[in-house]
Structure to design on (794 residues):
C-alpha cells in the first residue's frame, strides 16, 4: 500500500490546491462533500422509497483456503502465474492434465456442484413468471412478459454444499504454498 | 456388551484404515443400517478434514519442521506425530521420517515387533517406533475420531470388530489384539479379511445371496489388497434345512499386492523417461505411480484405448516447464500387469522360491514370485483335501484331482477394478477346472472392491448379535510343539524333532482343546523355549498326536513360544511337570498355557515376538 500513498510533500501540495478549488469551484466542492460524507446518508441514495443497500465484504479466509487447495492438488496458481507464450501446445497440454485432474479432485472433494437446469444444452425451455432471476439469466430478445421460451445455452452451476477443512487457530491462510527447501 | 448401540468395524489395512458401523437398534433381519464413520485427520499442516479413509501412514516430524498448532486435532493439541493424509504427503518428500506398511512388519517373524525399528529408512537422530506402537496409534486415532463424532456412545461401549489377514499367524493375531486392548478397544473380535469381504457381499445382496449360492458350493475368495494377497475357501453346507458357511482353508501370507503392480508400471515408464534424459526424484515416482494406476484402470476397462498419457509434474513453481510427459501403452500394461502378475499357467505350477540371503531379514519378506496365479495354483493344490471331512462334500472331488475345485469366486481389492485382471484370473482358473473335467466356477458379482472388508466388519458384529448367517471355521491350522526325540546322538546329525499336536484344526472361538497326555519338565524361574509349528493341511490330527516325519510343504515352523514359571511358592531351579493347553479366545487369538500336574494353576505361554 505504501507505493500508492502520496508522500508528505505531495500531500502538502494537494491540500493547498484542494483548499483553493473547494473555495472557488462550487461543483468541485459538491464532489468533496460526497467524498467526505459516509455513503449511507448520501443524498442521491436516499430515494424516498428505496431501502438502504447493505453490501457484504466476503471474508478472504475461505477464498484463500480454496485457492490453497487448488494449488496443493492441482497446481493452479503455478499454472496461472507461468508465462505460457514460450511453450508449445503439447507442453501446455501435458501441464493441463495435472491441473485438470488435481483441481477437479479438489473441487469435488470440497464442494458439491450441481447443474441448475437438468435439460440438455440446446433444449427449448420455458421460464414461468416468477422464475428465479439469480439462478437463470434470460438473454437476447428480452421483451414482453414471462413465460419466456428460449434455448438453454448453459446449464448453470450451483454449489449445494461446501466442505472446507477446519483450520487450527493461528493457521496462516495467506500461505497458498510454502517454499520448499530440499536438504 | 448387551447394551451396545452400535457394532463398529475397523478395517486396519496395510495402506488404509476405515471405520464402519451398524446401528443395532435400527437394524432387523436383512434390513441393516450400515454407514461409514468419517475420520477427521490432518490433510495439511493445521488443516483438518473428514475423510472416509485414514491412510495407514505415520509421520515423525522434525521439531522445527512445523509451526506450533500445525498438528492440532479436534481432540488433541499436544501430539508430536501425524497419522493419515498429512503423514502420507509429508512422508513422500521426507521418507526417512515416514512409517508405512506397519501391518506387514507386525507379522514379520524375522524381527522384534515391539522394538523401535520404524521407519526402517530412518537415519541417525530420527526417533523410531515399533510396529506394535504404530498399530496402537492408528487404532487410537480411530477411537478418538469416533468419540469426537459420537460423544454419547463412546467406542469402548460398542461391539467391536477388527479385521486381519486370514494368513496372520497366532503371534500376529495376539499382537493385534494386544494393540487393540492398549488403544482402548476392550473385547474386540478379530475377523479374517476374506470372510469380511464375503459378509459384505451377503449383506449387500439383501436376501438374494441365498439364490446365488447353493449347497455344495466352494467359494474361493481372492483378496488382493494394496500390499498383501489373501486367499480363503468357504464351503456352503446345509444344516437343519438352512444354508451354512464354513471357512475350510486359508492361504499363506503373501506380501504381494496392487501397489507392487503400480510400482512395476511406474518403473517401466520411469525408464522411458530416463532414456529421454529425465531422472525422477522419489516424489515424482510417487506421482508417476499414481498416474500409472489411473492409466492401468483406464486401459484395462476400455479395450478401444491403445495408450494413456501419464504426466509427472516437477516440484518447482514452473509447472509447464517442469512437467514430464510420457505414456503407458496397452502393450506395456499387458506385459507387466497382466502377464507379469496374472500369467496363464498350469494348475501344477508352483511359485518360484529363491534361497534368501541373510541380508533380506532387514526388509520386509516380499513375495519372490509376483504371479498371483502361481500362488493360487499352489494354494488350491495344497488344499485339495480341504472339504474332505465335510458332510455333503464326499464326492466333491473326482478321484485323482490335482487341486481343490472351487465352484464360485468372490474378488476383493482395488486391483480388480481393472476388469481384465479378474477376467484373466477366472479364465486361468476355469482352464484348470476344464482340464479336470470340472464345471467352470461362477463369478459372484456385486462386491464393493475397495470397501467390502470395512463394511463386512461392522456387519459381522451384527451377525454376532444373533442376526443373519455366520461363517463358521475356527482356526485354519493345527498347532504343534517341537519335542526332542530320545534318540542317541549321532555326530553331525541334528537330534530329530517330533511334533506334538496341542491344538487341532478348526478350533472355534471360545473353545479349549483337551490336554495332551505328554508332560514337559519346566524349570521354575527360567524361561523355557519350545519350537512351534503350524499346519494348514493336517485336518485330522488330534491333541496328543506325535509326528516323527512330515513333508516340508505340510508343516511350517512358526516363531517359538516361551514359558516362564513364576517362582512363587516354589524353589527356583525346581523342575515342575506340566502339560500344554491350547484354547481359542473369544477375540480369536490362540492362548497357550502350561498346566502343572495336579494343580489348578495356569501359566500363560508367550509367543516369542522378540526374536
Amino acid at each position: 500500500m505504501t507505493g500508492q500513498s502520496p508522500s508528505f510533500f505531495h500531500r502538502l501540495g494537494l491540500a493547498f490546491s484542494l483548499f483553493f478549488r473547494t473555495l472557488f469551484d462550487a461543483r468541485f466542492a459538491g464532489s468533496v462533500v460526497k467524498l467526505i460524507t459516509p455513503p449511507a446518508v448520501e443524498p442521491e441514495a436516499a430515494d424516498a422509497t428505496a431501502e438502504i443497500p447493505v453490501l457484504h465484504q466476503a471474508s478472504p479466509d475461505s477464498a484463500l483456503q480454496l485457492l490453497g487447495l487448488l494449488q496443493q492438488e492441482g497446481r493452479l496458481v503455478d499454472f496461472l502465474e507461468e508465462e505460457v507464450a514460450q511453450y508449445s501446445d503439447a507442453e501446455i497440454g501435458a501441464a493441463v492434465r495435472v491441473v485438470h485432474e488435481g483441481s477437479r479432485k479438489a473441487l469435488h472433494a470440497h464442494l458439491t456442484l450441481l447443474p441448475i437446469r437438468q435439460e440438455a444444452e440446446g433444449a427449448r425451455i420455458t421460464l414461468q413468471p416468477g422464475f428465479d432471476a439469480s439462478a437463470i439469466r434470460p438473454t437476447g430478445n428480452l421483451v414482453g412478459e414471462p413465460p419466456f421460451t428460449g434455448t438453454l445455452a448453459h446449464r448453470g452451476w450451483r454449489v449445494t454444499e461446501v466442505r472446507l477443512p477446519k483450520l487450527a487457530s493461528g493457521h496462516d491462510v495467506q500461505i497458498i504454498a510454502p517454499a520448499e527447501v530440499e536438504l | 456388551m448387551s447394551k451396545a448401540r452400535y457394532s463398529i468395524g475397523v478395517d486396519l489395512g496395510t495402506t488404509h484404515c476405515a471405520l464402519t458401523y451398524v446401528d443395532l437398534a435400527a437394524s432387523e433381519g436383512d434390513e441393516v443400517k450400515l454407514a461409514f464413520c468419517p475420520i477427521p485427520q490432518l490433510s495439511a499442516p493445521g488443516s483438518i478434514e473428514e475423510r472416509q479413509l485414514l491412510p495407514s501412514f505415520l509421520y515423525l516430524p522434525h521439531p522445527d519442521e512445523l509451526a506450533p498448532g500445525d498438528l492440532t486435532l479436534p481432540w488433541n493439541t499436544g501430539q508430536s506425530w501425524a497419522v493419515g493424509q498429512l503423514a502420507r504427503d509429508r512422508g513422500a518428500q521426507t521418507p526417512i521420517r515416514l512409517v508405512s506398511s506397519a501391518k506387514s512388519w507386525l507379522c514379520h517373524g524375522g524381527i522384534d515387533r515391539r522394538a523401535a525399528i520404524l521407519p526402517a529408512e530412518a537415519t541417525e537422530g530420527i526417533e523410531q517406533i515399533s510396529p506394535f506402537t504404530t498399530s496402537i496409534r492408528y487404532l487410537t486415532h480411530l477411537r478418538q475420531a469416533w468419540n469426537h463424532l459420537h460423544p454419547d456412545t463412546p467406542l469402548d461401549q460398542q461391539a467391536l470388530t477388527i479385521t486381519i489377514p486370514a494368513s496372520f499367524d497366532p503371534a500376529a493375531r495376539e499382537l493385534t489384539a494386544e494393540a487393540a486392548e492398549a488403544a482402548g478397544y476392550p473385547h474386540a473380535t478379530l475377523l479374517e479379511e476374506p470372510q469380511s469381504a464375503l459378509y459384505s457381499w451377503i449383506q449387500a445382496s439383501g436376501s438374494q445371496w441365498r439364490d446365488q449360492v447353493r449347497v455344495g458350493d466352494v467359494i474361493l475368495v481372492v483378496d488382493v489388497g494394496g500390499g498383501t494377497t489373501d486367499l480363503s475357501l468357504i464351503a456352503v453346507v446345509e444344516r437343519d434345512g438352512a444354508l451354512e458357511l464354513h471357512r475350510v482353508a486359508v492361504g499363506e501370507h503373501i506380501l504381494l499386492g496392487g501397489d507392487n503392480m503400480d510400482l512395476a508400471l511406474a518403473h517401466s515408464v520411469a525408464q522411458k523417461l530416463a532414456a529421454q534424459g529425465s531422472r525422477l526424484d522419489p516424489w515424482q515416482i510417487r506421482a508417476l505411480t499414481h498416474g500409472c494406476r489411473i492409466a492401468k484402470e483406464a486401459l484395462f476397462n476400455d479395450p478401444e484405448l491403445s495408450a494413456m498419457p501419464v504426466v509427472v509434474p516437477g516440484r518447482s513453481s514452473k509447472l509447464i516447464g517442469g512437467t514430464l510427459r510420457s505414456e503407458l501403452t496397452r502393450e506395456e500394461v499387458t506385459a507387466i500387469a497382466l502377464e507379469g502378475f496374472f500369467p496363464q499357467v498350469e494348475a501344477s505350477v508352483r511359485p518360484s522360491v529363491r534361497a534368501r540371503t541373510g541380508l533380506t531379514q532387514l526388509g520386509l519378506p516380499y513375495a519372490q514370485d509376483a504371479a498371483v496365479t502361481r500362488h493360487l495354483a499352489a494354494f488350491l493344490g495344497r488344499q485339495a483335501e480341504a472339504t474332505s471331512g465335510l458332510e455333503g462334500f464326499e464326492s466333491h472331488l473326482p478321484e485323482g484331482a490335482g487341486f481343490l475345485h472351487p465352484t464360485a469366486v468372490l474378488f476383493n481389492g482395488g486391483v480388480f477394478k481393472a476388469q481384465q485382471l479378474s477376467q484373466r484370473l477366472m479364465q486361468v482358473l476355469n482352464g484348470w477346472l476344464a482340464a479336470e473335467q470340472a464345471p467352470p466356477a461362477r463369478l459372484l458379482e456385486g462386491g464393493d472392491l475397495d470397501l467390502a472388508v470395512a463394511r463386512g466388519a461392522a456387519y459381522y458384529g451384527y451377525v454376532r448379535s444373533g442376526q443373519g448367517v455366520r461363517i463358521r471355521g475356527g482356526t485354519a491350522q493345527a498347532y504343534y510343539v517341537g519335542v526332542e526325540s530320545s534318540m542317541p546322538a549321532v555326530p553331525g546329525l541334528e537330534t530329530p524333532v517330533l511334533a506334538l499336536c496341542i491344538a487341532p484344526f478348526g478350533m472355534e472361538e471360545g473353545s479349549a482343546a483337551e490336554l495332551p497326555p505328554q508332560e514337559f519338565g519346566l524349570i521354575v524361574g527360567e524361561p523355557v523355549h519350545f519350537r512351534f509349528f503350524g499346519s494348514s493341511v493336517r485336518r485330522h490330527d488330534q491333541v496328543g498326536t506325535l509326528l516323527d516325519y512330515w513333508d516340508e510343504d505340510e508343516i511350517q515352523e512358526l516363531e517359538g513360544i516361551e514359558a516362564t514359571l513364576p517362582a512363587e511358592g516354589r524353589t527356583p531351579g525346581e523342575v515342575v511337570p506340566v502339560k500344554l493347553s491350547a484354547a481359542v479366545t473369544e477375540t480369536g487369538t490362540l492362548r497357550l498355557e502350561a498346566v502343572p500336574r495336579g494343580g489348578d494353576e495356569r501359566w500363560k505361554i508367550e509367543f516369542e515376538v522378540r526374536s
Summary: The two ends of chain B are 36 Å apart (CA to CA).
